[in-house]
UniProtKB/TrEMBL annotation:
<dbReference type="Pfam" id="PF09560">
    <property type="entry name" value="Spore_YunB"/>
</dbReference>
<dbReference type="InterPro" id="IPR014197">
    <property type="entry name" value="Sporulation_prot_YunB"/>
</dbReference>
<protein>
    <submittedName>
        <fullName>Sporulation protein YunB</fullName>
    </submittedName>
</protein>
Length: 258
């Protein structure tokens, strides 16, 4: 009888070769994952992080500068009247304006630093709690809003996958200085009347920190202090802004009226 051929059993590859292949596979997979995140996910993730950062920073600024609402127009404005008691010049009390700017800057910076430490802000004159957003300062600290977790599914742009996948932490920190200024808006009302609205304009540079990248963005917001109607002298002649004939009102006729 013919003998059946015997096949030699193959010896397994050496352990060093298996380790090298596994290491090479892991390196290639990691490189491709990083490339995909950098090219596809990072721009979308940064855009989401900017919106979250702007939302939190605006809430923090509004809470910190809430004290400015206690000032009135008469406390800030300096009005100069003529001999007849009519307002001729409206200016601002520089000492009060500087006080508001200084306090607003200090409070916003302290608010951000306290939030990053996870501690309630400490002011010499405690702020009233921000009721507008339904959260107190202590509640904001407990939630630690400086660290926002974004599901990676939001980077796909698909509503179904928006809440799926691991959550990526996004941290934000205040850098540089906070800039504040008192701004006004004037709106003409009637004849020689001006409606003046005062605001505190706040700008803060905030650093957004996400995995693989970081970026600095500027958050701007304004808080209304007060609004006031400044009434000037009604002229004897009024031309209607060159849109109609001039109208003269004699004073003597007005005085003779019963």
């Amino acid at each position: 009888m013919r003998k059946r051929p015997r096949f030699k059993s193959r010896t397994p590859p050496p352990m060093s070769q298996l380790l090298f292949i596994s290491f090479l596979f892991v390196m290639i997979s990691t490189f491709l994952s990083i490339w995909y995140i950098d090219a596809k996910i990072k721009p979308v993730l940064m855009d989401i992080a900017k919106r979250k950062t702007t939302e939190f920073a605006t809430r923090a600024i509004n809470s910190a500068v809430k004290f400015a609402e206690n000032y009135t127009f008469d406390q800030i404005a300096r009005t100069i009247t003529d001999d007849n008691g009519n307002v001729s010049i409206v200016g601002w009390d520089s000492s009060v304006v500087n006080k508001i700017n200084r306090a607003a800057t200090d409070r916003v910076e302290e608010f951000f630093r306290s939030m990053n430490r996870g501690e309630p802000p400490n002011y010499e004159n405690p702020l009233s709690e921000p009721k507008v957003y339904g959260d107190t300062v202590d509640e904001l600290v407990e939630k630690d809003p400086t660290v926002v977790e974004i599901p990676i599914g939001q980077a796909t742009g698909n509503a179904i996958l928006a809440n799926l996948g691991p959550k990526i932490p996004v941290n934000l920190e205040l850098i540089g200085s906070v800039r504040t200024d008192i701004k006004e808006e004037r709106e003409e009302f009637g004849i020689n009347n001006v409606f003046v609205t005062l605001y505190v304009l706040v700008e803060a540079d905030v650093q957004i920190i996400v995995p693989f990248t970081t970026e600095v963005t500027t958050v701007k917001t304004r808080i209304m202090i007060d609004k006031h109607l400044v009434m000037g002298q009604v002229p004897n002649f009024y031309g209607g802004g060159n849109k109609g004939p001039s109208i003269a009102v004699p004073k003597k006729d007005l005085q003779d009226l019963p």
